[in-house]
Amino acid sequence: MKVTIKEVAKYAEVSPSTVSRALKNSPLISQGTKERINEIVKELGYHPNEIARSLANKSSHTLGMILPASAEDSLINPFFTQFILGVTRYLESQHYSLLLSSAKNEEEELQQITRTVNSKRVDGIILMTVRENDKNIEYLMENKFPFVVVGNPKKRDEVLWVDNNNQKAMFEVTEELIKTGHKKIAFLGGSKKLKVTKNRFKGYMEALQKYNIQLDNTIVLEVGFCEKEGYLSTQKLLKSNKTVDAIVTTDDLIAYGSMRAVKELGYRIPDDISITGFNNTVLAQYLFPSLTSVEINSSELGFNAAKLLLASLSDELLNENFYMVKTQLIKRNSSK
């Protein structure tokens, strides 16, 4: 027989409304009471009726996430899977669900967002990318629909956002290469429309300028966030630029392809060419040689994106409208 909230309340010697607040992690309920109620919930096998509760509250208890057109193979890229794990970890603690959508291009992204907003199936949306003159952000702001973005938006004071200091992180990568004797450092990055690419490129430029190294535009390439693009672009790069002694990439997947191309062309890593990644995916430490990369804590980004958005939905007073997640340069054997 199905356990009801009244039975849980009876066992806990509290009112049903107290049980409900405790399960929503309300700050009005003491930590001790929450723990006691959660123990009783587990013991009795009580499962809240989320659909009924959503109807009563006029809330779907669901957030939407649009996987970006810039990542055609989004779920192959470990960044996205780790980010989603972080989001769901927080949502589950708040009895929320996640609705995933994908898009093939920027126009389809906006169509998906419009449909999602009009369907009233979600209480808020998580946007995975920020572009210059971002139409998705403009639409959500115009319609006053709750959302949070991953990246540093143009209207940063008016929007909820989470990010790393991508400029600082790429500066540290490039500076480390320069300090170990590299002079001809190529840059393989994603679309220039994306703020994350622009910020990482700024860090690269900043390091070159600090050490008076002239920028060579012929070794700055715009590539897709995948292994194939890294492979093809590196082949093209090294066939026309024989003096390149290091390659920085804006994603580990690009670096994987780059390493394969370098080896096939007969170069040694890192003796002839150093290679660095970004995002510190699980495979980075198991490659041969192991890949120098930047830990961006993707799961923490997702966790805090969800936390920030739910806090705003509950009218919680926010100290800040953003959350910055720290990065760390992980030095391995693919660089000197």
Can you give keywords for this protein?
336 residues; alpha/beta; 434 Repressor (Amino-terminal Domain); Rossmann fold; 3 domains; six-stranded parallel beta sheet; four-stranded parallel beta sheet; 12 strands; 44% helix
Structural summary, described in words:
It is elongated and about 75 Å long. The mean pLDDT is 90. The longest helix has 16 residues, at 78-93. It is α/β, with parallel strands linked by helices and 336 residues long. Helices cover 44% and strands 14% of the residues. It has helices at 5-12, 16-23, 31-44, 50-57, 78-93, 106-119, 135-142, 166-179, 195-210, 227-240, 252-264, 298-313; strands spanning 62-67, 97-102, 124-127, 147-150, 160-163, 185-189, 220-222, 246-249, 274-276, 293-295, 322-324, 328-330. The protein folds into 3 domains: 5-48, lambda repressor-like DNA-binding domains (434 Repressor (Amino-terminal Domain), Orthogonal Bundle), CATH 1.10.260; 60-164 and 298-326, Rossmann fold (3-Layer(aba) Sandwich), CATH 3.40.50.2300; 166-296, 3-Layer(aba) Sandwich (Rossmann fold), CATH 3.40.50. Residues 3-57 form the HTH lacI-type domain. Pfam families: LacI (PF00356), Peripla_BP_3 (PF13377).
